[in-house]
Amino acid sequence: MIGKEVLKGLTAYKQGMQISEVKRKFNLDRIVKLASNENLYGCPENVSQLLKDFTVDFEYYPDGYAYDLRKEMARILQVDDDQLVFGAGSDEIITLICRAFLYPGTNTIMANPTFPQYRHHALIEGADLKEIPTVDGRHDLTKMAEAIDEQTKVVWICSPDNPTGELITEEEFKTFMEKCPQDVLVVLDEAYYEYVQPELQFSLHDTLAKYHNVIVLRTFSKIYGLAGLRVGYAIAHETVAEKLNIVRGPFNTGSLSQRAALAAISDTQFVTKMRTLNDEVKNEFTQFLDTLGWSYNESHTNFLLVHTPIDADDAANYLLRHGFIVRSGNLLGYPKTLRISIGKEADMKELQTVMTKLQREIDDGVFT
């Protein structure tokens, strides 16, 4: 069979069950998907209107440079145009980083567990992995720094982390960077950046000005509610961004996606509104979990990693049968946990009812 030898030990990404699939399987009329950390409030209103009215000559290729989006993002972020790289979600940019900087004989460092696509694409490029176990769901930055050697090309830092939601403080990050050689790239994956309280957010300008070996990843898939349109971006030093653009496909973000992202960032109140709503509902849900006796990791995102008293798959399947799709921690490297996205208040209250019923069945010894 033709193909890279490493592919024999890898599998394609396995997504969770989709809403239509669950409806058919369990004969349910209503399903709430809380498995993929999407913003269930949707996108800004001006984007919804754009999608209704949008007209474009689809026979033409999209703007490969993403000129309008690039100019506006550079203005907002206060960076140069050439420091930006756009992709079909930040997932694609992870692929570009591995393609540009990793190859056989090199190694890359990451936490374990963390977002699995770092590992997946690094292996495809033939790099060796140095996976440093997390401590209580947090990156062990001290040991990650100690693992760097002459063959290390890329270090991955996910903050807030997926799947735990734990945040690396700016002081912790600076301490790590002082130990990291300047010729080693550090990818700071901030997919959930906008959900972090402003006083805990890093200064992008200061970070990039001081550390030319940092690549910051962000996306429109999370708080902006554009997961289906696939627009992510990286901010990096011009020399790093140039290499990523060399390996990037020439038309990798569509015309509609670019216009939607441009419209989304023009709604300056949307992010604050979504972050406030998310925190309110998340706080109510954590109070419920405290009452139920289920623990969870501290989260600075729109999801919680919840620790379960039973096997994660059993818990996830129970919720599935009752109309809620969540992510089993067995798939994420954290057994006996569920990753639960924060949905709308009414949905989360309904979920509380189902979880209370589950705990009662466990207590009564009738859970199956």
CATH class of the largest domain: Alpha Beta
* CATH homologous superfamily designation of the largest domain: Type I PLP-dependent aspartate aminotransferase-like (Major domain)
Report how far the terminal alpha carbons are from each other.
Answer: 44 Å
% residues in beta strands:
5-15%
Number of domains: 2
What is the gyration radius calculated from CA atoms?
21 Å
| Class by alpha and beta content | alpha/beta
State the strand order across the main sheet.
2-8-7-6-5-3-4
Count of DSSP helices?
Answer: 13
Which percent range fits the helix content?
25-40%
- SSE pattern: HEHHEHEHEHEHEHEEHHHEHEEEH
Morphology call: globular
Characterize the biggest β-sheet.
Answer: 7 strands, mixed
Quaternary structure type: single chain
Mean pLDDT: 95
| CATH second-level architecture of the largest domain | 3-Layer(aba) Sandwich
Query: Could you give the count of β-strands?
Result: 12
Low-confidence stretches: none
CATH fold node name of the largest domain: Aspartate Aminotransferase, domain 2
